[in-house]
Amino acid sequence: MKDFKIVICGGGSTYTAGIVKDLLDQSHELKIRELWLYDIDEERQNKVAVVVQAVVAQFAPDLDVRVTTDPAEAFSGANFIMAQMRVGGLEMRVSDEVTCLKHGVVGQETCGAGGMAYGMRTIYPMCQLVDYCEEYAAPDYWIVNYSNPAAIVAKAMHKLRPNARILDICDMPVEIEARMAEILGCELDDIEVDYFGLNHFGWFTSVRCKGEDVTDKLKAHVRTYGYISEASLNDSLVKDPDWQHTFENSATISTLFQDYLPNTYYQYYLMPDSCVEYMDINNTRGMQVINGREKRMFAASEALQRGEDVDLTQFYVGVHGRFIVDVVKSLALDLRHRHLVIVPNNGIIENLSDDATVEVPAYITDRGPEPVRVGTIPRFYKGLIENQDACEGLIVEAVIEGSYQKALQAFTLNRTIPSATVAKALLDDLIEQNKGYWPELK
Question: What positions does the domain Glycosyl hydrolase family 4 C-terminal occupy (predicted)?
């Protein structure tokens, strides 16, 4: 069996330990020769690496985990690079959230102005990662990218590094599929969906469970409960207030627009007033992550270094890690598993432009994705998608050209921002907040 060198780029992420656990769970099929963590933040990565090494010691004690900030070390001969970079760290996420909320608009890391700000920080670091892989990695390397905001990053790479071996993915649709499975009382692997849109901007057109069409059954449920089972409504483990609000908004959107089932992120675009009213500028989602998951990760690292026992299962959450590992496994072993991925349109959705960056089902082979054709889509959904795709395209052009005008046009087009005057004031503030991260806009 062929073995592989796998690199996690963004090794200092609090998600890394969970991803590694999912890799080890699949090691009977996806044989790991070398596992490397790479990050530019050495101090943070070293803290997370303590937890990762504890996971590996428990489940694969013979596997040597390497930790580095040297790209030549990390990427030399690499077969698969899992990219989860967060340019500016959680501190800049919080800055984006707070700045947006001060202007009365959605403060969110991937949607609206926060997502555009994050995207503008991430484009050239992602180019650098591609260049490292071109220089050092194995000739048939694959970057499996789930760095946010995935839509903007993917569109930029299609333009700036069109020959890169990079596959862009997002775990949010899979998280929704997992909720669908819970609602239906089946396993995630039993679910197969048809879907179209952009990343964080798409619709489930049909859902099958073990081959049976359950779309109408799910629609009826989601209009009442959102993407959560009746049983789970009383489960304290899922009573995260932010997710409760998100699920409630999914019910509203499903009731208003009954053709398809929405991605949960549509709440920010179709109900921005409700989202802003709910959001707390003194307790943003980024602040919650810093005071929650990050704090727990660093505390665990310190405890392990003191020789204390730590419950590592607290870091094995959601389908985030499982999804990325499944995609890598399908690429590595030519399994042709069906996943939702982000690709250039090129006729997949017939009445959208070829250069739109769409999220659709595809069969994942060792040569890359083979997308499933969608055909034409109705005018309402086409209009939504064209507007958002234009917004994201203008952000990419603003970064490449250093164009203030195009950045302003992008902010003005975005559905989460109510007017051109608000767009300008917000953009000007974000320029100040992102000095050193964004190119100069003129």
Answer: 195-416
Bridge-based pairing of strands 142-145 and 166-168 is parallel
Is the bond preceding residue 439 a cis peptide, omega within 30 degrees?
A: no
Whole-number pLDDT of residue 242? 85
- Give the pLDDT confidence of 80-115 residue by residue, as tens digits: 999 999 999 999 999 999 999 999 999 999 999 999
* Distance, CA of 393 to CA of 391 (rounded, Å): 5
pLDDT at res. 230: 73
Backbone dihedral region for residue 336 (phi beyond 0: left; psi -120 to 50: alpha; all else: beta): left
171 catalytic, yes or no?
Answer: yes
Return all residues near 85 (Cβ < 8 A) that are at least 6 apart.
9, 10, 122, 125, 126, 129, 147
Task: Please compute the mean of the pLDDT values over residues 436-441 and round it to a whole number.
Answer: 97
Catalytic residue (one of 227, 265, 266, 268): 265
Instruction: Flag whether pLDDT at 228 surpasses 90.
Output: no
pLDDT of residue 237: 40
CA 201, CA 384: separation in Å to the nearest integer? 9
Active-site entry in 171, 227, 266, 269: 171
Query: Do residues 349 and 196 lie in contact, with contact meaning Cβ atoms separated by under 8 Å?
Result: yes
Q: How many CA atoms lie within 13 Å of 253's alpha carbon, on the beta-carbon side?
A: 26
* Beta carbons within 10 angstroms of residue 256's beta carbon: 11
Instruction: Using the structure block, give the residue that is written with the tokens 């790209």.
Output: 71
Residues 208, 414: Cα–Cα separation, whole Å: 33
CA distance 294 to 249: 27
